[in-house]
Amino acid sequence: MNLIVAVDNNWAIGKNNSLLVRIPEDQKFFRQTTTNHVVVMGRKTLESFPNKIPLPNRINIVLTKNENYQAKDAVIVHSVEELLEVLRDYKDREIFVIGGQSIYEQLLPYCDVAHVTKINYEYEADAYFPNLDKMPEWEIVADSDEHTYFDLEYTFYKYERKKA
After folding, report:
1. How many angstroms separate the CA atoms of 156 and 26, rounded?
2. Mean per-residue pLDDT of the chain
3. Which whole number is the average pLDDT over 81-98?
4. pLDDT tens track for 48-63
5. Is the full-model pTM beyond 0.85?
6. Which 3 state secondary structure label does DSSP give 54?
7. Spatial distance between the Cα atoms of 75 and 91, rounded to a whole number of angstroms
8. With contact defined as beta carbons under 8 Å apart, do 58 and 39 qualify?
9. d(Cα 78, Cα 63) in Å, to the nearest integer?
10. Distance, CA of 101 to CA of 98 (rounded, Å)
11. Complete edge-to-edge strand list for the sheet that includes strand 12-15
12. E strand intervals along the chain
């Protein structure tokens, strides 16, 4: 399983159920990377999308504890075990975990690749991603040149879990 995330210098990812910043090139990378694949998210992430509508051209799976939760055009699961069972039906597809904090924390142990956009700034935030740089089992295997959006500098990184 893969994950994709944009973080600031403190590995913050959001505030008030919204992204910290919207960088067009990062959003384009997200679209290109996840289109025609499976995306796994929490309920709050889905509800942060425009009109609370699942992402087009992807299989959207929502992991929520709310047993009554429904979302048009999304597969709803209520536990990591149920999610892993459902994902067996998509073993021929790439799977991307897309947030938020709780979902990343629950599914990080099942991921082998992390696409991380690091934004060189420190935002006020209330949601965070685990700091992969402090986890010895993760290593950077690729990075981009530094990019700039107005006065923001950011870099795309690809992390992989080290093989045991």
Report:
1. 8
2. 97
3. 97
4. 999 999 999 999 999 9
5. yes
6. coil
7. 16
8. yes
9. 6
10. 9
11. 18-19, 12-15, 127-128
12. 2-7, 12-15, 18-19, 38-42, 59-63, 74-77, 95-99, 113-119, 127-128, 138-143, 147-149, 152-161
Q: Rounded to an integer, what distance in angstroms lies between the CA atom of residue 89 and that of residue 87?
A: 5
> Which two three-digit tokens encode residue 116?
């991380």
Give the model confidence (pLDDT) of 94-126 as tens digits. 999 999 999 999 999 999 999 999 999 999 999
The helix/strand/coil state of 101 is: helix
Q: Name the one residue in this structure whose structure tokens are 């159920």.
A: 17
Domains, the chain, in order of start with CATH, read: 2-161 (3.40.430.10)
User: How many residues are there in the chain?
Assistant: 164
pLDDT tens per residue across span 122-143: 999 999 999 999 999 999 999 9
What is the chain's Cα-based Rg? 15
The pLDDT score that the predictor gives to residue 11 is 98
Residue type, position 142, single letter:
A
Distance CA 143, CA 133 (A): 14
At residue 164, does pLDDT exceed 80? no
Running DSSP on this structure, what letter comes out for residue 55?
Answer: P
